[in-house]
Each structure stands twice: as C-alpha cells, then as structure tokens.
Amino acid sequence: MNRKLPAFPAVFTVLVILASIADYIDHISRPDGRFLAIWPQWALFTALSTAFLLIVYLVVERLLSRFAKMPAMLGGALALGLAIFAHVTINGDLAARIAGVDSNLTFDQPLIPVLVAMAVYLVLAMLYAGLRRALKK
After folding, report:
1. Gap between the Cα atoms of 68 and 79, Å rounded
2. Could you give the CA distance from residue 53 to residue 30 in angstroms, rounded to a whole number?
3. Distances (CA, A) of 20 to 14, 69, 108, 129
4. Domain coordinates of the chain in residue numbers?
5. What keyword terms does UniProt attach to this protein (predicted)?
6. Phi, psi (5° rounding) for residue 129?
7. Model pTM?
8. 8: Cβ–Cβ under 8 A, 6 or more apart, which residues?
9. How many C-beta atoms surround the C-beta of residue 46 within 10 A?
10. Cα 60 from Cα 66, distance rounded (Å)
11. pLDDT tens, position by position, 21-62
C-alpha cells in the first residue's frame, strides 16, 4: 500500500488547532461561568495564542530543517519547545492583553511545560513515522 501522508509538522499543526478548540470549549463550559461570560474575548485569546504558538513552531521548524544538521523529529521538538517557552513567557500575556482577558499565564517553572511538550512531540512524531513506514509497504 503506497499512500502519501503529509509531513508531521502539518499533522501536528492540525492537532494543535483541534486541541485549542477543545480547550476553548472546556473553558467556556466550566460550571462557574467565568469564561462563558467573556466568550468572545476568550475566543480571541485562544485564537491569538494558537496562532502565535504555531507561527513560532513552524518558522523555527522550517529554519532548523533547512539550516541545521539534525533529525527532523529533534528539530520539530526543539521548535515546539521554543514556541512553548515563548508562549509561557511572552506571547501568552501579550495575547491576553490584546484580547482583554485577565489571565495569569506566569509559570514558576517555565521549563516544565517545555520539556513535557517536547517529550509528547517526540512520541507522537515517532508513532507517525512508524505509521508512514507501515503504509509504504
């Protein structure tokens, strides 16, 4: 079976968008109604945060794949790590200010979400690479 599957960064981008939509729904569905009361602002915050994260990820991933001599999975994981770090230190607060939401995105340990995201990315990328290999046969 010879099926052409998209490269993992494209698949990962779709996964991030779907996760962001699920996160938005989770927030506005909470019983206290805090996020439902500001659903348009929260939608803008979610969209901006997702866009910032994906732009950093995709640009850095492309630069690393083009100029760095490293496996694509590692470059993607590093790109995501940088995107998450930028989000928890700069972009998240910026998106909150633009959207007009009161969101405390300050992390005491910003490297923890970075390392977790990179590990999850590597696992997903390896699973996807295995799927692509299996479908080539």
Report:
1. 12
2. 24
3. 10, 31, 23, 24
4. 8-136
5. Membrane, Transmembrane, Transmembrane helix
6. -60, -40
7. 0.89
8. 72, 73, 76, 124, 125, 128, 129
9. 21
10. 10
11. 999 999 999 999 989 999 999 999 999 999 999 999 999 999
